[in-house]
Amino acid sequence: MKKYVSQNKKSLAAAIFTGTIFSVMSAFFAIMVQQLIDIAVKKDISAFIRMVIFTSVYIVMCGLIHFCYAALCKRIICRVTQALRFDVFQGILKRNISDFRSVNSADYISALTNDIKLIEDHYCTPLLQGLLGAVELAASAVILIYFSPIIFATLIALLILLTVIPGLFNKVLEERQCNLSKRMAELTIAVKDFMSGFEIIKSFRMIDCFEQSFNSKNEITTKSKYGVDKITAAVESVSVVLSSAVLIVVFCVAVYLIIKGNITVGVLVGVLQVSGQIVNPIQILSQSIPKIQGTKSVIRRLRELSEYQCVTMTGEKEPTFDNKITVKDVSFKYQNRNDILNGADCSFERGKKYAVIGKSGCGKTTLINLLNGYFAHYRGEILYDGVELHELDIEKLNEMIAVIHQNVYMFDSSIRNNICLYRNIPDERMKWALEVSGVENFLDADRTIDTNVGENGASLSGGQRQRIAVARALVQDKPILILDEGTSAIDLQTAFDIESRLLAIKELTVLTITHSFHPDLLQAYDKIIFMEKGKCTMGTFDELLENNETFVHFFMLNKEKG
Ligand SMILES: Nc1ncnc2c1ncn2[C@@H]1O[C@H](COP(=O)(O)OP(=O)(O)OP(=O)(O)O)[C@@H](O)[C@H]1O
Questions:
Q1: Which atom in ligand 1 lies closest to the alpha carbon of residue 334?
Q2: Based on CB atoms within 10 Å of each CB, which residue in 193, 310, 374, 557 is the most buried?
Q3: pTM, entire model
Q4: What ligand 1 atom has the least distance to the C-alpha of 368?
């Protein structure tokens, strides 16, 4: 948080300056009261008129200065939360795809919304209020010294007590704040799940189940919030009691000093006034400190997100793909699972076309994800032009590869923007991409390239979305195109046509994960990679049919199904 404070040094200095002036002016009010009482005792009417004029000007000035102070505080809070939110967002953007996927995306949403709000309410606001409180306290203390050093000494002793007692709540408040942050993240995850699965929930009559689940999470979050609020209420009550106790003790000491003849009645009233001004900042301080301390765990969580450093794939070499990608004796398993790949060997030459085939769950997508550098903990070697993946800059590697998944994400924008991804693409290339991908076939007078596709492409069919994804990959001009069942939602003939056109692009290396077993199409691939029991067998379609019994069996079975 220090970074954000130093980014707003000037505004903070101005806030402290105006806050100090306001505090001093507020504390000065006690002297005015004392003066007025003494004027009343002396019955001096002209001094009284002068005091009335002075007081009026003083009140207007107080109002103006307080406005400046409050506006500066709001500005600082807005800037700090904006910068914090931006840093967290940047930290999320920096994550590699594998790390990003390891956390539920609603967790990120919760950090960017709930946690930032928590920092605003429980860190920034109390910190600024506390600063003003401290200045007010100091100013009032000076006035108190002016009235009576003995009363001042009593006050200091009590203050020490006041700062220690609310501090006892710090630890429990921090634990509860941390718990609340987690519960809010869980609630956000549940809400996101509900929104994403709305259609399934409705059509499969899951409303009761979701209602119960939401209700229970809502209840847990509310309880957790109440847990924080209860501690905050306890801190507030303790601070109210303690500050009232301070007021009474100070008042008793002042009365004692009057009895002893050490101070006048005017000073007594002044002391009472300034003591009242001391109670307020004491309350603010004793409530602010535990609140600020309580946000430690949330700040830690936000720091972890914003200062994300990739520790798994930290290579810096520029990836190239002039020759080939080699997968050498690669074994891989997901956490606490058996090996998915077990000594897999295969290679991909530049410009050649490959079809990856195998039973559902045999590890086809896993292999593709490994090539993309999503996972670091594999055994064996994955080499791009002879350089191991761990030595390469993964961000740059990802820029070389276009992946088209079965489920295509669509931005709520025009077809053009979904293809060009908001970049300027030359007309020629765009025209070619529309043709190869088959997008041009579903454009007409009603649906042009500039028609909006709705939320996640709601106004398009699954096949149309996939065709847009193919066009998107083509205009980006990447050397490697991976289709992870990327044409599965398109009718057989259209998919055949699109894939044939893709296979005809000479310079493009194509890897297609496919469950479609059209012999003509499979023959058009340079090599088939048949995956089975964690291993890969490579060959042309005809070679595999000739030499690999398992492949023949698998092919015949699927061909019949198809
Ligand atoms: N993130 C993950 N964590 C744990 N297990 C996973 C994860 N992703 C995939 N798996 C498991 O790894 C195995 C291989 O999955 P993968 O998606 O690579 O198979 P696939 O051959 O592409 O399947 P399909 O043809 O059905 O798409 C499956 O058993 C799957 O359940």
A1: 4
A2: 374
A3: 0.73
A4: 18
